[in-house]
Structures are given as structure tokens and as C-alpha cells.
User: Which sequence fits this backbone?
């Protein structure tokens, strides 16, 4: 007789775990469906948060940053090839146009 009670208890535990696993699967499916439904809204909120943290530069600021980066690149190139006069003259001509 005690063996019969034990098997009933084991089957009850297995049924509870199956029910809880089913509920977990349904809940995770519902969350995934909501995320897919609201994906454009969530993406927009993420982009807005990024703009708050790191604002976009204006066209003039982008141009100034690009020119500064180019000038620094030319300066590094000039310093690295000081031994070759023809290259140095050519780079200085390019730098004067920028």
C-alpha cells in the first residue's frame, strides 16, 4: 500500500511541473508576441534615448571634425616621411588646399 501512495505523489508532482511548464511557455510566448507587436515603438524609444546620451552633431560640426581629422592625418604623414623631400612637398601642397 505505501508504494501506491508514493506513485500517486510522484504523478502529482509531475503533473504540477507539466502545468507550470505549460504556463511558463504560454507566458513567454505572450511576452514575445508583445515585443514583436511593439518593436517599432521600442526601437524609437531606444533611438531617442541614444540621442539624449550622445546628441547628433550639426553639419558644420561634422565638417569641422572631418577637417581636423584630415589635418591631423596629414601632420602624422609629414612627420613619418621627413626623409623624402618629394613626398613632403607633395603632402604640404595637399595640406595647403585643405
Assistant:
Amino acid at each position: 500500500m505505501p508504494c501506491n501512495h508514493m506513485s500517486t505523489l510522484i504523478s502529482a508532482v509531475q503533473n504540477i511541473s507539466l502545468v507550470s511548464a505549460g504556463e511558463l511557455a504560454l507566458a513567454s510566448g505572450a511576452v514575445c508576441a508583445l515585443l514583436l507587436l511593439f518593436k517599432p515603438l521600442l526601437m524609437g524609444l531606444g533611438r531617442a534615448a541614444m540621442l539624449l546620451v550622445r546628441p547628433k552633431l550639426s553639419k558644420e560640426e561634422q565638417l569641422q571634425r572631418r577637417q581636423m581629422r584630415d589635418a591631423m592625418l596629414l601632420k602624422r604623414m609629414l612627420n613619418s616621411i621627413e626623409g623624402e623631400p618629394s613626398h613632403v612637398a607633395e603632402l604640404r601642397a595637399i595640406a595647403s588646399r585643405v
